[in-house]
Structures are given as structure tokens and as C-alpha cells.
């Protein structure tokens, strides 16, 4: 059975591809400082929590830059 093509209704597909905006070195530095100085997490004592906080900060920053 052949499936009929579905037209996109989001409107973004018709705009073309957007250019990805990555992180600057300062953004990565800010993420490190946030985890160490604001969250008070020590990589050597709690690697899992440190990595989760770092990843969450990076993800948030990328979402801000790309939406």
C-alpha cells in the first residue's frame, strides 16, 4: 500500500534550513563556572551530578541560541 505524502503545516520547512549557532568558548567557560561556583559541585566528589548540571546548562544555552 502506497502512503500519500503529507504536507508540512509548521511553516518552518518552507523557510529553508536555519544555520546552527554553536557555543563560544566563553559559553563553555560560563557553564563550568556555573557548575563549580553556583551549584557548588565538585567533579571529583560527585561526577554524575556535575556532568548532569554541566549538560543541562549547555543544553539550555544551545536552545536559547537556536530558537
- Secondary structure tally, helices: 2
Range of helix content: 40-55%
Between the first and last Cα atoms, what is the distance in angstroms?
38 Å
Please give the number of β-strands.
0
Question: If you had to describe this structure to a student in words, what would you say it looks like?
Answer:
There is one protein chain. The chain has 67 residues and is mainly alpha-helical. The protein has one domain (19-66). The protein is built from 2 helices and no strands. It has helices spanning 25-38, 47-66. Helix 1 crosses helix 2 (47-66). The chain is elongated and about 55 Å long. The protein starts with 24 loop residues before the first helix and ends with a helix. The model has no long low-confidence stretch (mean pLDDT 88).
What is this entry, summarized?
Helix content is 51%, strand content 0%. It is mainly α and 67 residues long. Helix 1 (25-38) crosses helix 2.
